[in-house]
Amino acid sequence: AQSVTQPDIHITVSEGASLELRCNYSYGATPYLFWYVQSPGQGLQLLLKYFSGDTLVQGIKGFEAEFKRSQSSFNLRKPSVHWSDAAEYFCAVGSGGYQKVTFGTGTKLQVIP
Amino acid sequence: DGGITQSPKYLFRKEGQNVTLSCEQNLNHDAMYWYRQDPGQGLRLIYYSQIVNDFQKGDIAEGYSVSREKKESFPLTVTSAQKNPTAFYLCASSPPYQETQYFGPGTRLLVL
User: Do B99 and A97 touch (CB under 8 A)?
Assistant: First the structure.
């Protein structure tokens, strides 16, 4: 069965600092990987996704993620965080088609001035 | 504008009462999903539907029921058998042959 681990429940960064959110997955074949962002009381918005090809994926809002098969990781990065990036971030893994997508438990990002 | 709408934004349930959460999409997506979100637990799949008149149980289907009579609509009923219904409920849909899910704004269910 597929699974996702987000080891950091809560992260605090200063505005303008770089950000890396960790995501490790478990899946036997090539996974479909996603990062979503959720503002309080809102639905999830897709930041980026990886299906195949270039392992460095660019997303919206200046985010990027790198797929590392050897480490079973798909970490999310941003070079300079803005106060508006404060939200909860979810990593997810799927197996293709209409198969189930499994979500991690989320990492809550706090941005301080 | 295309999108997914969920209503109501807040819903209150009394003991022993069934309540229905609405989910509508005008994206022409085939697949639709219902998730439950509790603090610190991420999203857990309740039910999903790949086509009209067909749906499958997810990981936590007990105490819930769904229908899919129209492509655009996938309502979720929280029955009285669900003993701990307080949560944030999210509906999602995905295009044909794609894994990317698009989410509605959610409904928060509270028990009186």
Answer: yes
- Per residue in B75-107, pLDDT (tens digit) is 999 999 898 999 999 999 998 777 789 999 999
Q: Can you read off the two tokens belonging to residue B57?
A: 């149980």
Distance CA B50, CA B52 (A): 7
B99–A42 CB contact, under 8 Å:
no
> CA-CA distances (angstroms) from residue B104 to A88, A110, B26, B69, B86?
16, 24, 12, 19, 18
Helix (H, G, I), strand (E, B) or coil at A95: coil
Distance CA B111, CA B83 (A): 10
For residue A51, which amino acid is it? F
CB B35 within 8 Å of CB B89: yes
Residue of A50, A90, A98, A103 to mutate, interface with B, max B Cβ within 10 Å: A98
- Secondary structure class of B21 (helix, strand, coil): strand
